[in-house]
Amino acid sequence: MLKWAALFGAAISVVIMFLLTWWAAFIAFGIVIFLLGYILYKKPDVNWGSSMQASLYNMALNYSVGLSQVDEHVKNYRPQCLVLTGPPNFHPDLVDFVGTFTKNLSLMLCSNVLIGLWKQKMPESRLTADGHTKWLMKRKIKAFYTDVVAENLRSGVQMLIQTAGLGKMRPNIPVLGYKRNWRMVSSQSLEDYVGILHDAFDFKYGVCLMRMKEGSRAAPSIGWSWLGATQNIPGSKDYSWEARFIAGLWVGSRDGPLIHVNPTTLASEQQASTIFQREQGKKTIDIYWLFDSGGLALLIPYLLGHKKWWGKCKIGVFVSGQINMMDEEKKVIVSLLSKFRLSFHEVHILPDISQKPPPEHIKRFDDLIAPFRLNDGFKDEATVNEIRQGCPWKISDKEVDKNRAKVAVVMWGSLQVRLNEILLDYSQDMALIAITLPISRKGCPRSLYMAWLKTLSQDLQPLIILIRGNQENTLTFYCQ
Amino acid sequence: MLKWAALFGAAISVVIMFLLTWWAAFIAFGIVIFLLGYILYKKPDVNWGSSMQASLYNMALNYSVGLSQVDEHVKNYRPQCLVLTGPPNFHPDLVDFVGTFTKNLSLMLCSNVLIGLWKQKMPESRLTADGHTKWLMKRKIKAFYTDVVAENLRSGVQMLIQTAGLGKMRPNIPVLGYKRNWRMVSSQSLEDYVGILHDAFDFKYGVCLMRMKEGSRAAPSIGWSWLGATQNIPGSKDYSWEARFIAGLWVGSRDGPLIHVNPTTLASEQQASTIFQREQGKKTIDIYWLFDSGGLALLIPYLLGHKKWWGKCKIGVFVSGQINMMDEEKKVIVSLLSKFRLSFHEVHILPDISQKPPPEHIKRFDDLIAPFRLNDGFKDEATVNEIRQGCPWKISDKEVDKNRAKVAVVMWGSLQVRLNEILLDYSQDMALIAITLPISRKGCPRSLYMAWLKTLSQDLQPLIILIRGNQENTLTFYCQ
User: Fold this and answer.
1) Are residues B235 and B345 in the same domain?
2) For the domain that residue A420 is a member of, what is the CATH number?
3) Strand segments (E) across B107-223
4) Digitized pLDDT (tens) for each residue of chain A, 480 residues in all
5) Domain-embedded: residue A38
6) How far is B22 from chain A (nearest CA, A)?
7) GO CC terms on record (chains A, B) (predicted)?
8) What local confidence, expressed as pLDDT, does residue A160 receive?
9) What's the CA gap between B142 and B139, in Å, rounded?
10) Cα B361 from chain centroid?
11) Which residue segment(s) compose the domain that B262 sits in?
């Protein structure tokens, strides 16, 4: 009752204020609104006290609960990313890439899997989680950080895929780094990596995979260089996705606190710079929309092209087509894209996608998979079975032939070779290439799959984003 | 540029409107504000279109991310609950209890563990999750629903404890129902149940356990009675926590869609009524604050006592003390509670808590644990070891004696017997009793622990809430 009387009194005061001298009242209001706007814009680092914090919590909670009432619809689709960064400061480029296109738009959740028993890892996880969140804030990335203790990488990611997020704010795309050192690692590690991709598809998620040009990785941060100096991390020389991930695990397995484990040190360490923090100018983003899986491969580069440093970039779309119908096909694609309200600058038809690549390129692919081949054509059956038992990831002759025979199928080594040639021809100097991620059958040897990925993306200068949706539509004609 | 010009034009229009006829302008503004207020208050079920939904998402996301910048502090502590309801419609009382004290205040997350392989369970989980969320909305409970597929109940709850939630909105108290049928179930099931409590403490979480009077459980909902009619669910007759949980699993294990699996049926089914939906009038809430663990046992009943149907309830606090210092101790407690700004109506000192209970009550406790005893005093060592191997949950004579010897320790059977006597004396007619949850050592047989819980809470009419914090302070003196 009392509070309503107070509100009434306040309203009356405002009315009287205007009645007495309306212009003075306007000036007073103007000053107040200007000051409020200034404070909201500047967001000064002031502790507004616990009642502000409490109302922040209440608003976050109420809006999140209210979101549950929104029905799912293709109009509401947002690429919500679960970024498998490990400790985020080990992967500034992956963090920046996802942070750029999700900023003010959709959920980004950096995640870290700690391998071990959760009772042992828990205190450490508590300690570092806060530091990682602070690090993300300092980098101005609007993201959450979460870690999980699991027996192995894959089961940890499964846990995250199943339970991370709240209500409608749940990730639907895991984002991974490209596993550069796949030829050196154990078969279990390879199995885990490809298994994560399969799990994501099983869970009706899309997948996004990022490959940087070799050597162009972000400068290692303090924590990382300190680690490198100890010289006893397996694979610490190559800054590959897994090496960094493993390094994270390795640091985590020590008992004593290490440099970057201290939250304050972590937040204050020098921030590594990546290409996502630089003006991209009038470079071009090329999208190779070869196999549709719901439009995700169009959506993510489109979103990226509307952000700060990428705003001036041209976006070109490449689709495959027949040489004698190029003009018609181009018209169809242009009209389709305009219905989706995606304003791309150029559309190209690739008529020569199914050409046979020259033998020397095929040979390079064969050389790549040679160490992983079973060569069962030259061995008797007992030996073959024995090897197959021990090394299920070995590639049999039949599999090579089978994959070579199905010309039209995505999962064909020589198609990747051909695509790589096309990419080298058309997009060598682009800022970014987005291309559909090839997928493999479940039984396909992991090393053969990784060889496709490597072949597809090798020797290219630009940043490469391999994207695959899950046949869930992410674009729509309907405006209302 | 254009949008700023438009804003400027709009502002000028408003100014001119006031300059021309100020009273007409005020009336126009008044009508608009009234209509806006009416719509915001009524929240009509209208689809405001995708731009409203989009801004709802953005606000939820931005506030949630902003929350990460709030440092953790005892002033910000909120009891955020992970409610182990199984399918929420099987546990309307548990849902209502937590929903009542968390409403507009803190996070409530209903969770369901589906036992099995996640690839098989996933489609079903997708189907039902939406229905459960709708059911919660229809019941006007502001809660999230999440499910997880795991090998067993305990590992599923571990997954939820580790990863559920987002940023600062993460549960810190699992809420369970009391396991009424602990004497009938397998030792593995008992191990899982008590293990969940231990896991929660290991993870620095509090725990809350609810026991309803036998027979006063909420009327089973349609889905449930339909299940009961099939008559082949183990334990379907007793509406215990686990029976309902198992029923949920059982329904889930069928291939075809069942009545309550259909989301629309689920949301439209008749809502079971519970005591939390009724005016409690001038009844009393009694808090037995016997062993402090951070003040959680005071906080939850206090929050409950400030909600709609419980607003008129008196709250009494019972603490143990010495008979010759009762007045001094009472003064200390009253001043402590007033510093915490908890306005409780009565404080009682219990001087007779360590009295020895009468032998017939002790005997009843001994009878309760008799079926679970190893009786190793009368057997030779080899037999004892053999039984111990097969049934690690059996209670050895030594354990009974040890627990009987430590008079001062919480984990003593006869203390629970004595507490039960006190509860029967003082609080038989109260609306709700909140009491500290006893804890056990890790090695303590599960059946002995469950016997304590049963002994402590048996024969009582009111709803019993067993609460234990984790030595983390939840109350503070400091106002600013």
Assistant:
1) no
2) 3.40.50
3) 108-115, 144-150, 173-177, 207-211
4) 778 889 889 988 888 888 888 888 889 989 998 998 888 877 776 666 677 788 888 889 999 998 888 877 777 888 999 999 888 888 888 899 999 899 888 999 999 988 888 778 887 787 788 888 888 988 889 999 998 988 888 999 999 998 888 888 999 999 998 888 888 888 888 888 988 998 898 888 999 999 887 655 544 433 333 333 333 334 334 444 544 444 444 333 333 333 344 555 666 666 777 777 777 777 888 888 887 777 888 889 888 888 878 888 888 888 888 888 888 888 888 888 888 888 887 888 887 777 777 777 777 777 887 777 777 666 777 777 777 666 666 777 666 666 554 433 334 666 777 888 888 877 777 788 888 888 877 777 788 888 888 888 888 878 889 999 887 777 776 554
5) no
6) 8
7) apical plasma membrane
8) 92
9) 9
10) 30
11) 77-276
B191 or A473, greater pLDDT = B191
Indicate the residue among A276, A299, A328 that finishes a domain.
A276
Rounded to whole angstroms, the Cα distance separating B374 from B379 reads 9
Alpha-carbon gap, residue A319 to A329, rounded angstroms: 9
d(CA A174, CA A268): 28
Residue B263 has pLDDT above 70, yes or no: no
- Same domain flag for A265 and A290: no
B contacts of A64 (beta carbons < 8 Å):
60, 64, 144, 166, 169
DSSP β-ladder status, B173-177 and B207-211: parallel
- The answer to whether position A473 is within a domain reads no
Residue percentage of chain B with pLDDT more than 70: 80
Chain B residues in contact with A166 by the CB 8 A cut-off are 64, 109, 144, 164-166, 169
- Per-residue tokens: A209: 């995979």
Does residue A200 sit in the same domain as residue A284? no
What is the per-residue DSSP string for A367-419?
Answer: HHHGGGB--GGGS-HHHHHHHHHH-TTPBPHHHHHHHHH-TTSS--HHHHHHH
Mean predicted confidence (pLDDT) in B71-77: 80
ipTM of this complex prediction, to 2 decimal places: 0.77
Taking the C-alpha atoms of residue B416 and residue B457, their distance in angstroms, rounded to an integer, is 9
Distance, in Å, from the CA atom of A353 to the CA atom of A408, rounded to the nearest integer, reads 11
- Tell me: do A242 and A324 sit in the same domain: no
Confidence band of B343 (pLDDT split at 50, 70, 90): confident
A13 falls within a domain = no
Contact B18 A18 (CB under 8 A): yes
Taking the C-alpha atoms of residue A261 and residue B294, their distance in angstroms, rounded to an integer, is 28
Q: Do B307 and B403 reside in the same domain of the chain?
A: yes
Domain-located, residue A112: yes
CA–CA dist A195, A24 (Å, integer): 69
Q: Which residues does chain A have within 8 Å of residue B470's beta carbon, measured at their own beta carbons?
A: none
Considering the domain architecture, whether residues A210 and A126 belong to the same structural domain is answered as yes
Do B66 and A78 lie within an 8 Å CB cutoff? no
Which residue type, as a one-letter code, is found at position B378? F
B480/A106 touch (CB, cutoff 8 Å), yes or no? no
Which pLDDT score is estimated for B230?
32
Domains of chain B: total: 2
Q: Which residue has the tokens 């549960």?
A: B171
**Is residue B423 domain-shared with residue B333, that is, in the same domain?**
yes
Please state, rounded to an integer, the average pLDDT across all residues of chain B. 77
Cβ–Cβ of A61/B106 closer than 8 Å?
yes
| B109 lies in the same domain as B215 | yes
Enclosing H/E stretch for B13: helix B2-20
C-beta contacts of B69-76 below 8 A and 24+ residues apart: B69/A137, B70/A53, B70/A56, B70/A57, B70/B168, B72/B168, B73/A50, B74/B473, B74/B474, B74/B475, B74/B476, B74/B478, B75/A50, B75/A53, B75/B476, B75/B478, B76/A50, B76/A53, B76/A54, B76/A57
Q: State how far the alpha carbon of A237 is from the alpha carbons of A88, A186, A219, A244, A259, in Å.
A: 19, 17, 13, 10, 19
- Six-digit token string for A14: 């405002």
